[in-house]
Amino acid sequence: MKGMDEGESIELFSWHAFKQASPKENFTQLSRNVITYSGGLPLALEVLGCYLFDMKVAEWENVLEKLKRIPNHQVQKKLKISYDGLNDDTERDIFLDIACFFIGMDRNDVIHILNGCGLFAENGIRVLVERSLVTIDNKNKLRMHDLIRDMGREIVRANSLKVLEKRSRLWFHEDALDVLAKETGTEAIEGLALRLSINNATCLSTKAFKNMEKLRLLQLAGVRLDGDFKYLSKDLRWLCWHGFPLKYIPTNFYQRNLISIELQNSNVQLVWKEAQVLISFLIFLFID
C-alpha cells in the first residue's frame, strides 16, 4: 500500500483529527509522529485521525506509544487501535457483526436487526461512521474498507485460532461447513453464514444447531436442513436463507424473537401452516 508525502499526509490527517487543514497549536509534532508511525497510509491516517479527535495531549502520547510498538507493515494492528478505543462492548459487537455479515446491507434494516439483539445500533453505527470504521453510501448501504473488514474478522479468528466452534462468528464457508457437517457447534457461536451454490443444495442436519443456544444471526444459501427445526436457537433474530427449500416455515421452529426473515428464491407457498404468535416486529422479504 502506497504512502502519501508529508504535506498531503498532514492535511488529510488534520481534517480528521482537528476538522481543519493543519494541526492545532501544541499538536504539530505529535501529528507528525502519528503520521510517521502510520507509514503515511491514507486509511490509517483517516481512522487514527478520527479516533484522536478531541483527545488531550496525554491521550495522544499514549496512542503514540502503542503505534511505536507496531511494525509499519502490520496495518491491521495499527487500525485495531481505533477498534480497541471504542466506548464499550456494544459498539465492538456492532462493528464485528457488520464486518462479518452486514456489509452491503441497508443501514435501516441492520439497525432494526441489531436493535433486536439489544445493541442500540443507531448510536453505535453513528460512532463507527465518526471513527471512519464504517461508511454509508448514497443508497444507504453499509460499506467498509477491505482492510478494516479483514481487521474485524481477524479479531474474531484470533479469539480461537484452532477451535472453530469456539469463535463467536463464522463467515468463511469452509469453517461454517466444517462445524455444521461435524455437528460441533457450541454456545460460543453468535453468528454463522454459509453461502453455497443454490443450484446444488448441500444437505445438513438441524441437529448441527442443537448446542448453538446463543445464535443470533444465521445466513444460509444453497443449504437444505433435514430434521426437527426445534434445534435452531431461540435467540435467533435474523434468518436470511436464499433458496429456502420448504413450502412453509415449520411450526416447530421457534420464531418469537425473530426480527427479520429473508427468504429469497424460496419455494414458500404458505408462510405458516398453523398460526404463530410473534412478539417482535418482523420484516418479511420474500423474493421468488
3D architecture notes:
- With 288 residues, the protein is of the alpha/beta class.
- The protein folds into 3 domains: 6-84, Helicase, Ruva Protein, domain 3 (Orthogonal Bundle), CATH 1.10.8; 89-150, Arc Repressor Mutant, subunit A (Orthogonal Bundle), CATH 1.10.10; 163-287.
- The chain is built from 10 helices and 10 strands.
- The strands form 3 sheets. The chain has a 6-stranded parallel sheet. The chain has a two-stranded antiparallel sheet with strand order 1-2.
- Strand 3 (169-170), helix 10 and strand 4 form a beta-alpha-beta unit.
- Helix 1 (6-17) packs parallel to helix 3.
- The longest helix is centred in the first third of the chain and has 14 residues, at 89-102.
- The two termini are 43 Å apart.
Secondary structure category = alpha/beta
Major β-sheet profile: 6 strands, parallel
Q: Strand order within the widest sheet? A: 3-4-6-8-9-10
Helix content: 25-40%
Query: What is the first-to-last residue Cα distance?
Result: 43 Å
The total of beta strands comes to 10
Beta strand %: 5-15%
Helix count, per DSSP?
10
Question: Which residue ranges are poorly predicted, with pLDDT under 50 across at least 5 consecutive positions?
Answer: none
How big is the Rg? Answer: 22 Å
One letter per element, helices H and strands E, the order comes to: HHHHHHHHEEHEHEEEEEEE
Average pLDDT score: 91
User: In total, how many domains does the architecture comprise?
Assistant: 3
- What's the overall geometry? elongated
